[in-house]
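ok trying again, last paste got cut off:
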Amino acid sequence: MIEVKEITKSYGTGESGLQVLKGISLEIKDGDFTVILGASGSGKSTLLNVISGLERPDSGKILYDKTDISAMTDKELTQFRKVTVGFIFQQYYLLPNMSVDKNVKMGADLAGNKDYKEIIKAVGLGDKLHKFPSELSGGEQQRVSVARALAKKPKVLFLDEPTGALDEQTGRQVLDYICKLQKEYGFTIVMVTHNLNIAEMANTVIKMNSGKVSQIYSNEIQKTAYEIGW
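nice, full thing came through this time. structure:
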């Protein structure tokens, strides 16, 4: 269980300062697929960065199973991210001079996972182990980033617009892989998107507007990546 309590976050000071998060409180259940939905500038990516430990809030608490990560030292927070969370972004952030195998192995080594090649197979890239990022399509590169994030066996997978740079067919395919892997491995998903259609895939949807949570609702029926509009 992730508990977010009265989180605030600002950038800049004085007249040029901007309050991005304005007293946000919410809960994310273990094993849930949660989408944070909102327009550009609503604060959704900042909220993801703060919940995941990439950034610190100005005030408030973030509890993972009652442990307050906002009170951790920098060293403790680095260890927390290493062990507990995985990240997938719109950009792939693959190392261009490393093969698929070695890019994914980087994530696996953080958790001492020697069975990481099973995850490469699970995202459909078992025959591309020795290919370099420049030899892959955009969708294949994003699937490598998915495999790298999951190879460290995170408890929570954070995704920031993971299909933003992909065409419709490839985007659906990547989302489908992520959902199938969640069912197999049981991790929690927290995904930021501005796409109302993708929100139909989630258990829980958190809508944001101007730095505040405007609505939280649950989908009675979760659509698959191939059932949603685009």
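cool. The CA atoms of residues 123 and 177 lie 6 Å apart. The two ends are 31 Å apart (CA to CA).
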